[in-house]
Amino acid sequence: MDIQLINRIKGGLYGVAVGDALGGTTEFMNTKEIEAKHGYLTEIIGGGVWNLEPGEVTDDTMMTLCVVEGILEDPAEPKEAIGRFFIKWYESRPKDIGNIIRQVFHKYDGDWFEAAFIAHMDLGQSAGNGSLMRCLPVALAYKDTADIERITAMQSRMTHYDPRCTEVCVMYNRMAYRLLQGEDLRSVILAEVAGSEYEGHVEALPDCPPSGFVVHTFRWVLHILLHSTNYAEAVQKAANLGGDSDTIGAIAGGLAGIYYGYEGIPVRYTEAILVKERLDLLVSQLYALNTSSSM
């Protein structure tokens, strides 16, 4: 068993969940409101707009798990399996679901790409962060970069027609893949944003709100990762932004979790997560898929 690889895979999946659970407390708040109520939030306490239980996760983690389960069921062509897990989750009446994704689910009639296009036309846009928040499992599951890019793009286009979403998901998972190989976080980020609209906009404090617009979200995620020295610092910075803090925390937490490893996530955080048994099972299955000779 490659202990280092399983530590990184587990760190990535738990990294999403912890960032989500921590940031869920402050979602839709602003920094002044957070400071008045929490000072500087460092603990997983639940509450917030969704009245979360401590350690309860939101759509960010739950849709990520749907992607994992779909890939495990049909690694070669996981779209239909992922879609079935999406619908099953949606029918459980979750507390939190993004507007774009909700619209796609309403429009779905057997063709995910068509539903995404119709929702995009009806809403006038589909450049949300909902496909970015869930895409990490693709990088954890596959060894071939062509497979990673193809399936990452596919899972994004299932709900988000806007090409900016696909572009960012692919960029993010290229980063994740390189971090799994043990590369340096800063070097990976700067190399992967080179030539994109994000080049030159990740070091300085973003001049945009921490919103659900995928461009804003990604700028904040990269800035946080470049200016944090450990996992806890990264997700705490995300949580204390407010805005779409659970999703920014989940996305930043995924890459930070791979880079610092599961052992780099504070035990009080990992133990708090209510779906940790499910996470542990999926981690072992992802590791098995990643290291199988057929992939």
Name the features:
mainly alpha; 0% strand; globular; 295 residues
Overview of the molecule:
- With 295 residues, the chain is an all-alpha fold.
- The relative contact order is 0.20.
- The mean pLDDT is 97.
- The chain is built from 15 helices and no strands.
- The longest helix has 21 residues.
Mean of all residue-level pLDDT scores: 97
**Share of helix, binned:** 55-70%
The number of helical runs is 15
Name the helix and strand elements from N-terminus to C-terminus, one letter apiece.
Answer: HHHHHHHHHHHHHHH
Provide a compact summary of the structure.
With 295 residues, this protein is an all-alpha fold.
Q: In terms of topology, how is this protein built?
A:
Elements: H1 3-23, H2 31-38, H3 59-73, H4 79-90, H5 99-107, H6 112-123, H7 136-141, H8 145-157, H9 163-180, H10 185-193, H11 214-226, H12 231-239, H13 245-260, H14 267-272, H15 276-290
